[in-house]
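Question (not urgent): is this output format expected?
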Amino acid sequence: MPPDHAAELVAERSFRLDGLAAVREATAAAARTAGAGEERANAMVIIANELATNAVMYGGGVGRLRVWRTPGQLFCEVSDAGVGMPDPFGVGWELVGPDAPHGRGLWLVRRLADGVEIHSGDAGTTVLAWLNLNGLSPSRDHHAGHAASRGEMSAETAWLTR
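Got this back:
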């Protein structure tokens, strides 16, 4: 759940592989309800899609989407009942190579979201990602600086930090 107790739940649904389009539609509607502009709404749809796809592919085939809004922020939580991640704090920071068959979802989520929390264990995984609706993206600046300090940001991926 988002840290603000004044958060309003604007979307909630369970899903399977055949329900990923409904996840995207519910997230887009929730973003519009929250007053997100087109760019921020599209970012949240991508975030929800990547998290839901991960829940289906790696979390037992079934997941749960919850979207909340607060004044100035939109939160997306996706949970599953899979076996959990071995290193939830270490995933998604490095871009995998172009020949890797998977491994881009959480990387993309971390680049698009203004914040991400991952809780994982034997009972499943819950990922909470949020966007600031005012357009300020301090975490994206942090991600860009973190990667650039290690010489990882290329011209091909720099657009993801804007």
